[in-house]
UniProtKB/TrEMBL annotation:
<feature type="repeat" description="Lumazine-binding">
    <location>
        <begin position="1"/>
        <end position="97"/>
    </location>
</feature>
<dbReference type="InterPro" id="IPR017938">
    <property type="entry name" value="Riboflavin_synthase-like_b-brl"/>
</dbReference>
<dbReference type="GO" id="GO:0009231">
    <property type="term" value="P:riboflavin biosynthetic process"/>
</dbReference>
<dbReference type="GO" id="GO:0004746">
    <property type="term" value="F:riboflavin synthase activity"/>
</dbReference>
<keyword id="KW-0686">Riboflavin biosynthesis</keyword>
<comment type="function">
    <text>Catalyzes the dismutation of two molecules of 6,7-dimethyl-8-ribityllumazine, resulting in the formation of riboflavin and 5-amino-6-(D-ribitylamino)uracil.</text>
</comment>
<comment type="pathway">
    <text>Cofactor biosynthesis; riboflavin biosynthesis; riboflavin from 2-hydroxy-3-oxobutyl phosphate and 5-amino-6-(D-ribitylamino)uracil: step 2/2.</text>
</comment>
<feature type="repeat" description="Lumazine-binding">
    <location>
        <begin position="98"/>
        <end position="194"/>
    </location>
</feature>
<dbReference type="InterPro" id="IPR023366">
    <property type="entry name" value="ATP_synth_asu-like_sf"/>
</dbReference>
<feature type="domain" description="Lumazine-binding">
    <location>
        <begin position="98"/>
        <end position="194"/>
    </location>
</feature>
<dbReference type="Pfam" id="PF00677">
    <property type="entry name" value="Lum_binding"/>
</dbReference>
<protein>
    <recommendedName>
        <fullName>Riboflavin synthase</fullName>
        <ecNumber>2.5.1.9</ecNumber>
    </recommendedName>
</protein>
<comment type="subunit">
    <text>Homotrimer.</text>
</comment>
<dbReference type="InterPro" id="IPR026017">
    <property type="entry name" value="Lumazine-bd_dom"/>
</dbReference>
<dbReference type="InterPro" id="IPR001783">
    <property type="entry name" value="Lumazine-bd"/>
</dbReference>
<feature type="domain" description="Lumazine-binding">
    <location>
        <begin position="1"/>
        <end position="97"/>
    </location>
</feature>
<keyword id="KW-0677">Repeat</keyword>
Amino acid sequence: MFTGIIESIGSIRAMTPKGGDVRLLVDTGKLDLGDVKLGDSIAVSGVCLTVVDLPGNGFAADVSRETLDCTAMSDLKAGSPVNLEKALTPTTRLGGHLVSGHVDGVGEVVARSENARAVEFRIRAPKELAKYIAHKGSITVDGTSLTVNAVDGAEFALTIIPHTLSETIMASYQPGRRVNLEVDLLARYLERLLMGDKAAESDSRQKPASNITESFLAANGYLKS
């Protein structure tokens, strides 16, 4: 689990094909690896990866074909900047929201505009994720915990303050950029809960219509004020 508070901007040192998938070598920048050991998890732009080697000032991780197909990691190349966060511990301050590091879909930056010292982004999510995105709710973009400022269909808006721009890779976002999206875990569990007994049916029999709406989330205290 992660918090969505980025600890360092790293960069891809190498992406090496290996037995049908990819071995990723990441330069971790200012990220402290003193307490990291083989088998630990590190989120790379929102994707939870397992450390398989620690060659010094970085780490290596294997990226499966499934992960490459379901995330924007296939867009990376040597030199690409990435957001980095180590897995949380029982004493970690939860400054963002609970993030699993399991990407739900790939979105696209469709607009960028300046707003005083902040930058506003509009991102288009896959249609199947739109029902989980709510005004003032939480969403993870490339591993960064953010608050949704507006929703219009499958598109949502974000206002990014200077500190977040300087501590994440978001300053480089331009229209057309693909980004990893993870919706709020609570929305996922609420949908499953609202299915009731139908949750025990096989996928071929399930025809669930989500009852999760913005008004439902607000009434039950899941939206930020």
